Amino acid sequence: VLVNGKPVAMTGKPAYVFVDVFDYIDFDLSRLHGSSVVTLLNGRKAQYMEPLKNGDTIEIFWEK
Question: With pLDDT > 90 as the criterion, what percentage of the chain qualifies?
């Protein structure tokens, strides 16, 4: 998958859901860096348990 413009290889499981991406990226959820976290999958709001497919584009960022 592509996360915030960078390729991320997710390996070790037969299938992944959106929330799994947080195991592979450095994104600090322990402190507020804005008003809310925006999570997009292929340009639309992501569902945390939504299955991921090879080639998906993910955007995760703090909304100010």
Answer: 91
φ, ψ dihedrals at 42, nearest 5°: 55, 40
Spatial CB neighbours of 63, under 8 Å, sequence gap ≥ 6: 34, 35, 36, 37, 38
State the DSSP string of 2-62.
Answer: EETTEE----SSS--BGGGGGGTS----SS-SSSEEEEEETTEEPPTTPBP-TT-EEEEEE
pLDDT in tens, 37-57: 999 999 999 999 999 999 999
| Nearest of 63, 12, 26, 21 to residue 41 by alpha carbon | 21
How far is residue 22's CA from residue 14's CA, in Å, rounded to a whole number?
17
